[in-house]
Each structure stands twice: as C-alpha cells, then as structure tokens.
Amino acid sequence: QVQLVQSGGEVKNPGASVKVSCKASGYAFTTYGITWVRQAPGQGLEWMGWISTYNGNTNYAQKFQGRVTMTTDTSTNTVYLDLRSLRSDDTAFYYCARGFTIGYDFGDYPYWGQGTLITVAS
Amino acid sequence: QSVLTQPPSASGTPGQRVTMSCSGSSSNIGSKTVNWYQHLPGAAPKLLIYSNTHRPSGVPDRFSGSKSGTSASLAISGLQSDDEADYYCAAWDDSLNCPVFGGGTKLTVL
Question: Which residues of B touch A (CB under 8 A)?
C-alpha cells in the first residue's frame, strides 16, 4: 500500500532553515510527483509546491519563491522540503502528498504523510 | 484571502443533509475540476471527492460533489457526529499556475 512517512517535528530559531523529509513506498516512486502543503495554527491549507520525482522539475507557490527548495532522491525514494529564513509565521504542520495523476498535480491527493510540526520560536 | 471562497461555518443535526459551497472564477473552478477534503484536528487531510463528483475507494456515498459554472458544492447526507471537521475545496488555477485551496468550512454537528 502507498505510504508517505515524514521526518519528526523540529523547533527552529527565526532566521534558521529546516529540512523535512518524506519517504515514499508502495508504488513506483518516479511515476508520481510529490506536493507539499502546510497548515499554520488557526489557518487553512496552503499549497507550497510540487516536485517531479522523475526529473526534479519543480513548481513553487509564488509566496515561497526564493525561500524554498524541493529535492528528490531516487536512491531512497525520498523527497525533501528545505525552507530558509524561517519566521514565526512559518510555524505550521507540513504535509507531503501524492496525487492521483501520473506526472501532474491537479490538487487531488489521496495519499498524505502524517505531517511534521515545525515550530519557529526564539 | 483565499482564491476559492468558502463559508467559514456550517452546521446540522444528526441525520440531516448539509451542503457547503466553494466559489471561484473562470481561471479555476470555471475551467478545472474541483476536489474536496475533510480535515480532522491532528490528522492528515482526507480526499473525499475528486474531479467534481468522484469518490475515492472507501469514502461513503453519503458524501457527494457537484459543480456548476464557477461554483462547486459538497453535500453530506445522513450527518453523523464524526463528520464534524473542517472541509476544504481545491482546484487548479490557470492564472497562478498552481492548485489553490479554499479557506475551509468548519462543520459542527449539533
């Protein structure tokens, strides 16, 4: 069965960087891209970006351009989210998700990681 | 401010049928398919409806989706106490070149 397992929660100081991992199993890894979605306390779901696990192509939300990098490691079936220059309003649960459609992100995600809480505080 | 507009709250009593709306524009709902998610505190979101009307395997047929023009709706029939959750719509947006979520509707089962 498809599983997405994320790394554990972290506490970071403002201005620091964080790297969250998402290890996939149960399907052909390079067939489907991985999307990252976050939810800040009291806020709604926010799409951050998508990476093709086939060729590493990315599509980032404009809000995060310049501050986010998504990478993929096909040797370990793992995708990484790197977020820099952290601020207090980056405190959120970060989720990785896999879509229905091969090679594309249409906002339809039947599979999700368990979520990773990133807390930004001094 | 979300690109897709959802009412912040909805409510119903057990057994009742409730609907919640999601309003967009020609660059998203008007030309693309809509997906719906249920989000319970402390859990990952769950896909309830994809491509406007389709239910993933395991989702009860109490949940149904529809779309007309630049708006979409999620209906829940036979409301149960464990349906109490936040519900989000999502769709691709051609102007932003990415998927967008609605702000969410908090459903309370009275």
Answer: 2, 32-33, 35, 37, 39, 44-47, 50-51, 56, 86, 88, 90-92, 96-104
A38 and A94 Cβ atoms separated by less than 8 Å? yes
Distance CA B79, CA B24 (A): 26
Burial class (CB in 10 A: 0-12, 13-18, 19+), A59: middle
- The nearest CA of chain A is from the CA of B74 a distance in Å of 15
Q: Which helix (H) or strand (E) holds B53?
A: none
How far apart CA B91 and CA B30 sit, in angstroms, is 10
Tokens of B69: 């023009």
Beta pairing, strands B18-23 & A3-6: unpaired
Give the C-alpha distances (Å, rounded to integers) separating A17 from A101, A121, B79: 31, 12, 44
Among B99, B83, B81, CA closest to B91: B99
Listed as ranges, residues in chain B with pLDDT below 50 are none
Q: Which residues of chain A have pLDDT under 50?
A: none
The Cβ of residue A90 has, within 10 Å, a number of other Cβ atoms equal to 21
Q: Which residues of A touch B97 (CB under 8 A)?
A: 59
Residue-wise pLDDT tens digits, A50-85: 999 999 999 999 999 999 999 999 999 999 999 999
Cβ pair A44:B45 closer than 8 A: no
